[in-house]
Amino acid sequence: MISVCVNGYGTIGKRVADALGRHPDVKLVGVSKFTPDADARIAAAKGIRMFVPNENHDAFVKMGIVPAGTVEEMIDSSDIVVDAAPDKKGVKNKEEIYMPKNKKAIFQGGEKENVAEVSFNARSNFNSAKNKNYVRVVSCNTTGLCRIIKPMLDNRDDLEKISVSLIRRGADPNDSKGSALNSVEWEANSHHAHDVQTVLGPIPIKTTAFKSPQTLMHVHSISMKFRGPAPSKEDVEAIYSRESRVALLMTATSTADVIEKARDLGLARNDIFLVNLHANTVISDGGELSMSITVPQESIVVPENVDAVISMAGLMDQETSMGMTNKILGLGNIKARMESAFS
Predict the structure, then answer these.
(1) Which residues are annotated as catalytic?
(2) I need a surface site. Which of 202, 324, 330, 342 has the fewest CB within 10 A?
(3) Phi-psi region of 8 (alpha: psi -120 to 50; beta: other; left: phi over 0)
């Protein structure tokens, strides 16, 4: 049994806390909460122990929530901290809190790679986190790309070049700031290619990112060039049908279509957790293969955070850990139902 806390209760933190709270080999010490708001009320109603800054204690009590202690006490009681603070605050937490307290920590993809000893994706490099003190779970986009590229590398040794165009959502659905309403922004040679390489090594990949004024999901258009004949559409479907964290969707036509089915299927928070590979976009032509995927940005990194905890603690091997995490989150059921909806 490993004691873990979640420092930050936003988009990622609340989902990771829910998952860790259901893991049989993890004791969820609690979560940090800095603002007495509606999220705090919901967390309290779910029985999640909340730790707050000492100076905010009375404000939580005033709204009817008795904190379990201070944020420092939460961290002191934990073996591993999942840092789910806003982007760029993780490194400050590391330097000012985790290192002085000699606490292991997991950071999110919004932090630079040098915040940790290794960048992590469960499907790609599970064992790399063992015995490490600091691990970074890569971003939602990088997680989606790793889940697609790693299986192809396992099946083919003649992959010559990968080019990806990312159409990123402008903001998460709960972000009131939003993004530009009448503009699409772009960045050539975006950081995503390097981020993939921090997990998979020096593979030949280039990425261009576009930021679009919508909130539902990221979309990636992926082109792979092979030295020999590219895998056929049937080969592609066979490869990814075996992947537990990839949903092979045959007939979806839009991100709205995908999210609507998640709603119709009653998925909590519309969380799919899987990267969706759209089979109706697969084109194999000579030595080139193209396909498109959609990435549910709010939930896709949640399984990776859980597996990072288990790997760092050395509690399970890769297959056992991923299987347990999949069971906790119901990924097998989600995969089957999403694939059936778009068969």
Answers:
(1) 140
(2) 202
(3) left
Cα radius of gyration (the chain): 20
Residue owning tokens 């999901």:
217
Find out whether 56 and 34 touch, Cβ atoms under 8 Å: yes
In this structure, what is the dihedral angle of CA atoms 111, 117, 120, 124, given to the nearest 10 degrees? Answer: 140
| Sheet-wide strand order for 2-7 | 69-70, 50-52, 26-32, 2-7, 80-83, 104-107, 134-137, 118-120
Structure tokens at 243: 């992947």
CA atoms within 13 A on the CB side of 214: 13
Sequence-distant (6+) residues with CB within 8 A of 342 are: 249, 250, 251, 252, 258, 261
Pairing mode of beta strands 69-70, 50-52? parallel
Q: What is the pLDDT of residues 277-302, one digit of tens each?
A: 999 999 999 999 999 999 999 999 99
List the domains of the chain with CATH numbers: 2-137+302-327 (3.40.50.720), 140-299+332-341 (3.30.360.10)
pLDDT band of 43, cuts 50, 70, 90: very high
Which residue is it, tokens 């915040």?
Answer: 115
Q: 206 has which bridge partners?
A: 163
Long-range pairs for 278-284 at CB < 8 Å and ≥24 separation?
Answer: 278/249, 278/252, 279/233, 279/236, 279/237, 279/248, 279/249, 279/250, 280/250, 280/251, 280/252, 280/253, 281/221, 282/233, 282/236, 282/237, 283/233, 284/230, 284/231, 284/232, 284/233, 284/235, 284/236
Q: How many CB atoms lie within 10 A of CB 187?
A: 14
Query: Is the predicted pLDDT of residue 29 greater than 90, yes or no?
Result: yes
- Using an 8 Å Cβ cutoff, are 86 and 93 in contact? no
